[in-house]
Amino acid sequence: MVVHAASSSHCRALVAVSALLLAVCVPLASAALSPYFRPPAFPIVANNPYWSIWSLSDAPGRSWTEHANGGVQAMTGYAKVDSTYYRFLGVPSVGGTGIIVDPISTQILPLSTVYTFKLGTAIQMVLTFSNPAQLDDDTLVSVPVTYVTFALSSLDGASHTVSLYIDHSAELVVADPATSVNWNDVSTSANTIIRMGANVQSVLSGSTNDRINWGNAYMAAPKETALVGTVSSDANCRNAFISGAAAPALQTGPRNGNDNWPVLSLRWNGLSVTSTTSVTKFMTLSYDNVNTMNFFSKVLPPLWSTKIGTILTVIAQMHTNYATYMSAINARNTALVTLFDKRGSNSYTTLLSLVYRQVTASTEHAIDTTTQQHYVFMKTFATSSTNGPVNGQVNAVTTMFFASPFYLLLNPSLVPKMLLPVLKYANSETSFPYTRSWAPSHLGQWPLCTTAVPTTYDMPVEHTANMLIMITAAAQRGAPLTYLQPYWPLLTTWANYLVASLPFPTSQLFVDSYGTASANNVNLAMKGAIGVGAYSLLLSLTGNTTAAAQYMNSATSFASQILAQSFSTDHYLREKGAAATTWSLKYNLLFDRVLKLGLFADAVMTTEQTFYTPKMGAYGLPVDSTTSANGRVGEQGFVAATGTTAQFTSIFDKLFLYANTTASRLPLGDYYVVGSGANVDFRAGAFVGGLYARELLEDVRAVASTSSISARAASTVSAATASSASLASFSSASIASASSASLGSASSASIASASIASSQSASIASASSASAASVASSASASIASASSASDASLATASSEAWQTFVASEASAASDASVASSASATVASASSASDASVATASSASDASVSSASLASDASDASVASSVSASVASVSSASDASVASVASDATVASDASVASSVSASVATVSSASDASDASVASTASASLATVSSASGASLASASSAAWQTSAASAASAAAAAGSDSDSTPIIIGVVVGVVCLLLIVLVIVLVLRRRRVRKPASAPAFDSTAPFFQVPSSIVANSTFDPSYDDLHTPSEPNYDTLQNVSGAETKSEAAVVSESTYDELKGAHSGAPQSETLYSELRTSHPPQDSPTQEDALKATD
């Protein structure tokens, strides 16, 4: 049994990473990983589908390392302490076995695998394999480099001489070791570098057993006297090291890889380790595959080659920045493990850490050098002979769907880069026209997308719904929509196909049918309804609320029919009309919650989860009643995410048991026998990314509180040390929370918060709590301006002068018994129609200011903490980002500590013109949202916030304060608040005059023809400029139409009336084509008949 480094307690806080520059390979002693975990395989090198090497034994010295999908890729490692040598890696038959040393502890972290060895009683060696797989850095995550770090320290307090050795065979560079290989020394003045590759380079010539046959492997380390790199036979290199002889000279090639087995080898000689001097050495293992994908006759190189340069440049950069990158890697490990541990399950934390690199290593980042388009290609790994053709599928839609929670959580912008190649193929942009009315299954066999994809693996409803769901989920989480411009007709065709296929699909393949077509599957029907709902949300993001309402009504109707026709006493059937004993996992319901559609009530999943409990096998839940012996890891991750805490914990405990005890020693297999834990199919692939579903759902809930559909994109936290913050920014609202002690604590100096990254606020945010001062004041002010595309005027409500003044006043109050925190982020707004009233200093408008607030606060001598966050976003083509930050202030001796946290939510035409209602909560956020086609600002004033601030100030006045500086601070705060209110109230009053309450939309008949995109809009695969004109949301009523896509407000999603269209037309009366546009949209493009279900299913190549 392998035991990871024990900790004195189950700590759930982040550990400081400042010491990592000296000991970057120290394992996470406080991480809440399971104390006893024997994974089925340990990731050693995990960069991409070709450069993916794993150890399949409990100790790396007990077996050869292998490729992710099988086949030996031999690596050997020795350590010599004084006169005794130990083998820690590989099982060589030549060169002597040495003393086989097993690790005393192991840890698998998201980006690192850590082995700790005791070399006799003298030396401790910590061996760490790390990948810079930080998903928020596209270039770095694409780099095919793995760090190998050796950290040596004395155990007995005595001094020792240590030498290290590592090699690898030609099996890493060719599929068949009988292939001729060649090698050479390409060292530079700074680095020792040796390389090996196939003697005949046939780039992108296809693959055998998932192994590459072209390119070169590189073994490198910073040049030093103690280091020697060479290439010779395995026996020569190893025997020389063990005997203490000099390393053999570099042999000349070429020769076959199994002819005296040439190996690349590095060795460090005579390293001195004392009781006070530890030694750390590192090296890199890299692979240059020259080109990475043949995408329908367009050969694409890897992303890093364009962004950084040659592989030698990459190696030099990785060596130069080793300390910085490793600090960022360790910080990211800590941040992720801490995030996972919030769920309170060691099994969960351990499994998510295990599969992280399994998911990232299943992808390759490529670039079209002509268009500079970045693509992400994902490979499916399959093991079953019956699924042979599935192995190597490029961007299989099903694989991407199960992996999507991982990417939607950690970097949603990568999802469109995965989906775009599929969209291009489905849109007939390749040399193979695609005529089916549903989404394709995949793009080809890795790494060749060079032929038309056959219909053999088509899953019409499955793949079509998957694509619409992923596109919409990425858009909701901040991914830009611009890439979709040529594909709206295609997406409409797909949505119409789903509508024609529902409520219950006819006989067809789907994920859980396993090669046998089946009809009326309930879980598939649910996915179809969610896919239709997803398309509705996508339309609403573009402002097309009429069509959005039609599809949403249809999705709602389908959901009701599915539930009504599949319920059986205590659960929902596997198929409509099936026996009452049939059932299946309704894992597709996950995205009803992720997208916040609300098509299926929580009670549906509660009913299902309760029914699943007695179906649990020894190692997890089976897929359904017909395949009761087999379960799938990704599907169970989806189900666990939507259950109760007890159900969530139960499922993950079973999955942990499967991973911990399975006899199938391979990278975690997705499809397995729930009774024995034996792998059935699919290994090493991205299906297991479904385990991240719970984390995604938690993040969705956290983001929802910001009241902005795309606020997720603004939630970025740097988990790196201050010296490497740019390398470790972590996109997760769950981590970004200012109240998170583990990430926001001032004591964790090495964690750099993105919210105080600017030089201005950073100096203010570091307010000290000096012994003579009981005042901790942090004033952070930044001005974000958002301007309308048609308006150049700007009204500024605050200035940096106020920020500086407040900061200086706070720092001067050294003896005040007050803790004051004023943080204001002010948005300046402009609009053509409001230009005349946008000036805050206008005398006539000043009379509208909140006098009651000023009078109530005039006598207040109080410690007031006012945190106002106003984020304005102007985007040319996508959903804007609004982020809300909150400050916590503690008053140690204050007689009164008053905290008013206000952020004002944008509300446009939310109520009748005669009604002064606004959206207000204890903390609201002002988020201005741009349309997909133009930038403008929708602003509003919150009367409730004004009242709340006034009442807080009034209450504070009654309490009083002894601080002499308090009146000054209060005066400043009140002055700024009043200034803000003047602008906000005026803007609201004037804009409300133009807002009319839209009438309720008529009920939509799901059998009626569906919306068709007008031809003028999609001509030449671009949007008509005049249509963009109409969609520029410079009028508040149109802002409202654009902001109706929230999950709980689908009933409002189609609030469009004739008067609203009249307003739109009137607002754009200056546009020369406005009348034509209006007529075109309303009358000139009557809907066409939708394809019937039968016609859609018959459509083939």
From TrEMBL:
Domain Glutaminase A central: 345-694
Region (Disordered): 1053-1101
Residue ranges of the TM segments: 968-990
Matching Pfam families: DUF4964, DUF5127, GtaA_6_Hairpin
Keywords annotated in UniProt: Membrane, Signal, Transmembrane, Transmembrane helix
Keyword Lipid metabolism tagged: no
Domain DUF4964: 30-92
Keyword Phosphoprotein (UniProt): no
Domain of life: Eukaryota
Family annotation (InterPro entries): DUF4964, Glutaminase_GtaA, GtaA_central, GtaA_N
Signal peptide positions on this chain: 1-31
Domain called Glutaminase A N-terminal: residue spans: 112-330
PANTHER family according to UniProt: GLUTAMINASE A, GLUTAMINASE A-RELATED
Protein name: Glutaminase
The species this protein was found in: Capsaspora owczarzaki (strain ATCC 30864)
